[in-house]
Specification:
Shape of chain B: globular
Largest interface: A-B, 81 and 97 residues
Shape of chain A: globular
CATH topology of chain A: Rossmann fold
CATH topology of the largest domain in chain B: Rossmann fold
Strand content of chain B: 25-35%
CATH superfamily of chain A: HUPs
Number of domains of chain A: 1
CATH architecture of the largest domain in chain B: 3-Layer(aba) Sandwich
CATH class of the largest domain in chain B: Alpha Beta
Structural class of chain B: alpha/beta
Largest sheet of chain A: 9 strands, mixed
Distance between the termini of chain A: 55 Å
Number of helices of chain A: 6
Helix content of chain B: 25-40%
Radius of gyration of chain A: 22 Å
Largest sheet of chain B: 7 strands, parallel
Radius of gyration of chain B: 21 Å
Oligomer: heterodimer
Chain lengths: 256, 324
């Protein structure tokens, strides 16, 4: 099976951050492979090991995103396409989806895999947008993938249970990080990644009008969350504090 | 006159409270702006929910009823939502941010060439669109996002708005729907339900959540007993759903469910940022943990430092006493 996995370079959510006059200030060097995308790469590699095929990663991003691409190649992806986008910070999910759809238009593949959301913005829109643009069968929030008789069988985490969904190929699927623990690249993988091809593509070569990529949504500012006051800590004899807090939930917090 | 439309989600044969919260908010936005507040329900038994929807102030309820909607499948749902948008032409279409919504929201936006803001904590109307607040960076901070378009889709986190009844005798509009087997893009093979009749965490008034500190069957039994006394839903941290101690559908956090009950009791949960991202908006948070430096205490209103196996039995007993 031919897998294309869409990956994104995102800020490390663990990195310290601050907000100055509505602007988010973070260390620009603390960029990582989106964790959900890493799970999609991992799952594709596992399926390739079982059933054969090829795993290619696609990344829209600035020149620096090549580090993120190398990480996926070091995990074991066979090759990569880097869609160079210097103005990526102006794009919203719809812009990304349009670029990806234009890229896939003339490609042959069985499965397009994506992370179910970006760990920085948590929107979770791009995957189903790409599927709609390409008229592909799709499912979101996959927690398990299997290949059976040439179809992709997806275990999806729904609202109250898990759904087993069979998708004919070609199809698209967005992946939860609950499906696996992405492998940490070993030295051999890292060395091999340096010899793997990264095809660089300009957005203009994909036949989309730049004006179409103009985002309908825009982040105008950032702000602190209304601070949650840490309450009181009760330490001491377990029985005593347990009863005291239970009483307070009734008389003070009024939630019983 | 512009229309603000709310999608009313049905799950396990019940109206999702979270969508009624969204409807309550849309009703107040519509009243303030002179827009029409309408709702749509799509289900195998859609018309049976009209009465419940009318209580929250929709002046029109659009109904799509077809057996195909018995279980969630994105192909028919997407087609029905697109039909509804074509027929109602709403300027704003609001959803509760359920897994069902997340499965179709992006595709619907692409299909309708609409702007979309997902998973917001609040939203307001502005000239030419919508502005919203979204938790980002593992919910450590908020951003303000604006969508400028004549069609804006927005999905709202559960618990963001209070229910507000304002009964209206709504006009009922049936929207035709039919779907050929050949249009079905995928096949739903089976549904593996979460074990037992668990309370939907997005709807629960109280949640007892278990973390790594819950080590064995005795611990699980204490969690179940506390939940039963409080009529609470049971949730779990990622550590416990990954190791199979609890069902994956019970996971609370950035990856799992984002909840905001009246009462959240975190038992043996250290409070990693991904977990806190999923529960920090709860009204009252109680944390029970033996590590006094556990980060969960930074968001807890009531923190009990102690071994959960020693704390829970008297805690449960005292709550039983209060409740009786």
């Amino acid at each position: 099976m031919k897998f294309y996995i869409c990956i994104k370079m995102v800020p490390d959510v663990y990195a310290p951050l601050q907000i100055k006059e509505g602007e988010l200030i973070m260390d620009a060097d603390r960029m990582v492979l989106n964790a959900y995308d890493a799970s999609a790469v991992e799952e594709a590699l596992v399926l390739k090991e079982k059933h054969g095929g090829e795993v290619e990663v696609v990344c829209i991003g600035p020149a620096k995103a090549s580090e993120t691409i190398r990480k996926a190649l070091a995990m074991g992806a066979d090759k990569a396409t880097h869609i160079l986008a210097s103005g990526a910070e102006e794009y919203d999910s719809a812009s990304y989806a349009k670029i990806l759809s234009a890229f896939f238009k003339d490609k042959e593949y069985d499965v397009i895999g994506l992370g179910k959301q970006s760990q920085d913005t948590d929107s979770g829109l791009t995957g189903s947008m790409v599927a709609e643009h390409l008229s592909l069968p799709y499912t979101t929030n996959a927690v398990g993938l299997e290949v059976e008789n040439g179809n992709l069988v997806v275990k999806r985490q729904g609202d109250s249970g898990q759904e087993m969904i069979e998708l004919p190929t070609p199809c698209a699927v967005t992946c939860s990080n609950d499906m696996n623990d992405p492998r940490i690249p070993n030295l051999k993988g890292i060395m091999a990644s340096k010899r793997k091809p990264i095809d660089q593509v300009e957005i203009s070569s994909l036949g989309i009008d730049e004006a179409e990529l103009k985002a309908d949504t825009k982040v105008t500012s950032y702000e602190e969350k209304p601070a949650r006051q840490a309450g009181k800590k009760y330490e001491g004899e377990a029985e005593e504090v347990a009863r005291e807090v239970a009483q307070l939930l009734d008389t003070e917090a009024n939630v019983l | 006159m512009s229309t603000i439309l709310t999608y009313i989600a049905i799950s396990d044969g019940k109206l999702k409270r979270s969508s009624l919260e969204v409807l309550s908010h849309c009703k107040s936005l519509a009243d303030a702006s002179g827009a029409s507040c309408e709702a749509v329900v799509i289900d195998a038994n859609a018309s049976s929910f009209i009465e419940g929807i009318q209580k929250y102030g929709a002046s029109k309820v659009h109904v799509v009823e077809d057996p195909i909607f018995k279980n969630h499948m994105n192909t028919p749902l997407l087609k029905a939502l697109a039909n509804v948008m074509n027929s109602v032409n709403p300027s704003v279409f609001a959803f509760a941010s359920t897994e069902g919504t997340k499965d179709v929201l992006g595709a619907l936006a692409a299909n309708q060439n609409a702007a979309v803001i997902a998973d917001v904590a609040s939203f307001e109307l502005i000239d030419g669109g919508v502005k919203a607040k979204r938790p980002v960076m593992a919910a450590k901070i908020m951003n303000n996002t604006e969508a400028k378009s004549d069609k804006v889709l927005v999905s709202v986190r559960s618990g963001s708005y209070d229910l507000n009844e304002s009964p209206e005798s709504a006009e009922i509009v049936n929207i035709d729907f039919s779907m050929d087997d050949s249009e079905m893009k995928s096949t739903l093979r089976e549904i593996i339900s979460a074990s037992g009749d668990t309370i939907d965490l997005n709807e629960a008034e109280a949640i007892v959540a278990a973390g790594r500190g819950v080590k064995d069957e005795d611990g699980k039994a204490l969690i179940s007993e506390l939940a039963s006394v409080l009529k609470a839903g049971i949730g779990a941290s990622r550590a416990l759903t990954e190791s199979g101690v609890y069902d994956p559908s019970l996971q609370i956090g950035q990856t799992g469910k984002v909840v905001s009950p009246q009462l959240y009791i975190a038992v043996g949960i250290s409070g990693a940022i991904q977990h806190v991202a999923g529960m920090a908006n709860s009204k009252v948070i109680v944390a029970i943990n033996k590590d006094p430096d556990a980060p969960i205490f930074e968001v807890a209103d009531y923190g009990i430092v102690g071994d959960l196996y020693k704390v829970l039995p008297p805690f449960i007993e005292e709550i039983k006493k209060i409740k009786s």
